[in-house]
Design brief:
The chain is α/β, with parallel strands linked by helices. It has a single domain (3-199), classed as ABC-type transport auxiliary lipoprotein component (Rossmann fold, 3-Layer(aba) Sandwich), CATH 3.40.50.10610. The chain has 6 helices and 7 strands, in the order H-E-H-E-E-H-E-H-H-E-E-E-H. It has helices spanning 3-20, 30-34, 60-85, 98-107, 120-127, 181-195, and strands at 23-26, 39-42, 46-49, 94-95, 131-144, 147-160, 165-176. A hairpin with a 2-residue loop joins strand 5 and strand 6 (147-160). The protein is globular and about 50 Å long.
Amino acid sequence: MKISKLLFIVLFIASFTSTFSQKAYKIDDFMSYQKNHKIVAVVPIIISLDPKNMPRDLIVEDLDKLHESESMLLQDYFYASYLQGAQKEKLSCQIQDVRKTNTMLAANKVNYYNIIKTAKDEIAKFCEADATIVIYFYKSSQTFNEKVKNTVDLKVSIFDKSGLLLWEFYDIASENADKNHLFIEKELIEKILKKLPYHDEIKVEKTK
């Protein structure tokens, strides 16, 4: 990942989360898509860091590798958390095993470094999924009243296999410096799972 791409992601996240913190968007007729979503793929999570918080002894390439590992870990955490809650919090869709998702993406030369440039309909096609969940985390550290807080901005989107944006959720979470960014990201993933619109019961039209 080059500097220009890193800055693009940073600005992309910040432009949403600074204005739309803890807000959601859902297309009016989401349920008409929901009933056709049987398999939903969670793609590698995109992670970026506030340039002001980048360690001086770390080059961009090394940071990218760290974020790639973190992305895989969080993608696994999302799937494991989904499986743990599958019995008590049933969704109307099935989340695809992330190992299968990544294998199918890799077979089509899509990975952590280029997924942001790949069209959403192409991603769904490669994963053989009816919809995709795309998660962005933007990490920063700020000082409030002489106390350092670690902050994570979140944007999570659901795209139909056609590439149409169906749902989006924004949030910001902060913790004291004793809780690292990974801890906050895991908390936000658990929140995402509870917020997913697939909890909504599908209305079945009555036949005359």
